[in-house]
Amino acid sequence: MGFLESFGIGFLILMLIALVVSSVGFYKYVYFISLGYGFSIAAMGVTLFVMYREVIGWGTLAMCVLFLIYGCRLGGYLLIREIKSASYRSTMKKEIKDGSSMKFIAKVSIWVSCAFLYVLQVSPLLFRLMNAEKLLANNTEALVGGTDIVTIVGAIIMALGIILESAADFQKSRAKKKNPSRFCDTGLYKIVRCPNYLGEVLFWTGVFVSGINIYANAWQWIAAAIGYICIVYIMFGGARRLELRQNRNYGDDPEYQAYVKKTPILIPLIPLYSVAKHKWLVG
C-alpha cells in the first residue's frame, strides 16, 4: 500500500475541514492554536461520522462523539475565557505573539502546519474506519464498524481525559474566584500542578491506543505517532510556560516553593518537578 492509498480521500477532507475552521487564526493569531484547535477537532469528529456512517459501529461512534465533546468543551471554554477574562487577555499578550508583525506567508505556513497536525492527531480513528470500509468493500470479513476491545479501551481513556481536564478547569476557576492572587493547590492540583494538561495527554493517549491494532502499514503508524508525540510535546511546553509564569508571580511565596518541590508538574508519581530549564520545550 503506497503513500496516497494509505491516507486516502478521507485525510484530504479532514485537512480541508481543519483548514476552514482554524482559519479563524487570521482574525487573531492565537486562535490558530486555541479556538481553531478545539473547534477543528469537534468538526472532524462530525465529519468522520458523516463520511463513514455506513460502516461505523457503536465504539467508533463513541469516539466521534468524544471528539465533538472534547472540541466543543475546549473551544467553548477558551472562547468564554477570552471574552470574560481581562486578566487572561493581558497575560496572553505578554506570553504569545499577536502576529501583527508577522508576514502573511508565515501565517499561512503556521495555519497549514496546525491544520495538518490536528488531522494527524485524529488519524487513528480515520485509519480504523477507512481500513474497515476497504475490507467490507473487498468482501473481506471485518470488525463491525471497526469496533473491538482496543477501540473500547481507547474510548474509555479518552472519556477519562475529558473528565479530568474538565474537573481541573472547574477546580481552578473556583479556586481563583475564592482567592485570585493565590496559586491553585487544591483538588486535582494536589496530585500534579497541571492536571488539565494531564487530561489532554490522557485523551490523546486514548486516541493513539485505539488504533494500535489497525494500522495497515508504516505510513499510518508514522502519521498517528507524529500526531501523538507532537501533542504530548506541546503539553509539556505548555506546562513549562505555566511554570515560568507562576515562578514570576509566586516565586517568593514559601508555600508555593514547598508546593512545587513535592508536586510533580505533569505526570503523577513521576518525580519530575520542573521543566523550566528545558528551553527546547515550546507550547
Task: Report what the structure shows.
By secondary structure, the chain is mostly helical. It has one domain. The chain has nine helices and no strands. The chain has helices at residues 3-22, 35-51, 58-84, 86-95, 104-137, 149-178, 195-209, 218-250, 254-262. The longest helix has 34 residues, at 104-137.
How would the blueprint of this fold be written?
Blueprint: H1 3-22, H2 35-51, H3 58-84, H4 86-95, H5 104-137, H6 149-178, H7 195-209, H8 218-250, H9 254-262
- Which class best fits the helix and strand makeup? mainly alpha
**Assembly state (oligomeric):** single chain
What is the general shape?
A: globular
State mean pLDDT (0 to 100 scale): 88
Number of helices: 9
Summarize the structure.
With 283 residues, the chain is mainly alpha-helical.
List keywords for this structure.
mainly alpha, 9 helices, 69% helix, globular
